[in-house]
Design a protein that fits this description.
six-stranded mixed beta sheet, 10 helices, alpha+beta, 351 residues
Length: 351
């Protein structure tokens, strides 16, 4: 499965992202925000490192480039090589490190992963996973069939996504009626779980993940920063349109079809009063404008640090002007509201 971050940065030094500072566990903590087509594998991994204090940034920094994030990740991998490995283990680690160094630049544009429907931590072993292994960042998905649906489980559970797609194609063209039925059952599973998340998958993540763990969730061909607190899952809100919304940091992951709520950095629920559509349009246009600033008005002859300072100053002035022109409502925007004809998502709760 190819992640869908189609936009690429030909020059990673000029591809910069805005930093949102929040108070996390009583410490001022930076979070990297996502632009319109940002590199979510890179940002998800880097935000895990920031939240777990494995990477720290200067408190005055307001922007960071892809190259800087890649350099941080590469340095951390080299520094984390275990001591006292025997020859076999050292050779294996060095091979994983070599694979990871090849993959890291691809984190800007998307990577191939192939989930397996056996458990929430099952993925096909590929070089792309070496980065997660070496950084010791758990990678999960929530795309599991319901074990009470024995017919679907027998068709799906022993397959990876790629194997299941191939199975559907082959079985539907078979003259064997049993194989045709299996192909239809498998196809129905993919259609009914197009969000790549099931209630059983969410419950399984809750049951197997320790409290206060920061991880990465693969869903809808995107990577999200995931956190478990007590008996609830949260995904990090990285949309750049919420850059200036300190009370919107996390989103609950208790529903399969989007019946969620926002919280602040302390997991206090943010009021979900509706905001006028015009305000949402303003936020979106500001996000687009910020991206244009970073991609078209940077002097490539300057150092990355000087570029960051110039852009940060320009963007702050723009925000100040927009705030004067369009006073902000105290109510936060709602993200991806459920269509009127779509039923609310089923809550996934462990009793």
């Amino acid at each position: 499965m190819q992640t869908s971050d189609a936009a690429s940065c030909e020059n990673s030094e000029l591809c910069v992202y805005h930093i949102k500072w929040v108070t996390w566990n009583s410490v001022k903590t930076p979070l990297i925000t996502q632009n319109v087509n940002g590199p979510c594998p890179l940002l998800a991994i880097f935000n895990v490192l920031l939240l777990s204090r494995r990477v720290t940034l200067p408190e005055t920094l307001e922007m960071i480039s892809s190259k800087q994030m890649i350099d941080y990740i590469g340095g951390l991998i080299f520094e984390s090589m275990p001591e006292h490995l025997d020859d076999g283990e050292k050779l294996n680690y060095e091979q994983n490190m070599s694979d990871a160094m090849t993959i890291i630049p691809k984190l800007q544009t998307g990577i191939d992963v192939n989930i397996q429907f056996t458990s929430v931590s099952s993925f096909e072993c590929t070089p792309e996973l070496a980065v997660f292994d070496l950084l010791q960042i758990p990678l999960y998905h929530g795309w599991l069939p319901d074990p009470q649906d024995s017919k679907t489980c027998s068709c799906v559970s022993n397959c990876s996504y790629n194997q299941l797609v191939e199975k559907i194609i082959v079985n539907k063209e078979s003259s064997d009626e049993n194989l045709q039925r299996e192909g239809l059952v498998a196809e129905e599973f993919l259609t009914n779980t197009a969000s790549q998340l099931t209630c059983h998958g969410v419950v399984n993540i809750l049951e197997t993940t320790p409290n206060h763990r920061v991880a990465v969730l693969f869903r809808n061909n995107h990577f999200l920063t995931l956190y478990k607190k007590e008996n609830e899952l949260f995904t990090l809100v990285t949309d750049q349109g919420f850059l200036m919304k300190p009370n919107i940091v996390w989103e609950t992951l208790s529903s399969v079809q989007g019946d969620t709520s926002f919280t602040d950095a302390n997991f206090s629920t943010t009021p979900t009063l509706n905001q006028p559509t015009e305000q949402l349009d303003i936020d979106f246009q500001m996000a687009l404008s910020l991206q244009n600033e970073t991609s078209t008005h940077v002097d490539g002859n300057l150092s990355v640090e000087e570029q960051d300072r110039q852009l940060a100053s320009k963007i702050q002035r723009q925000f100040d002007q927009e705030s004067l022109q369009y006073p902000r409502s105290s109510a936060p925007p709602t993200d991806n509201p459920t269509p009127a004809n779509q039923p609310k998502g089923e809550k996934c709760v462990i009793l």
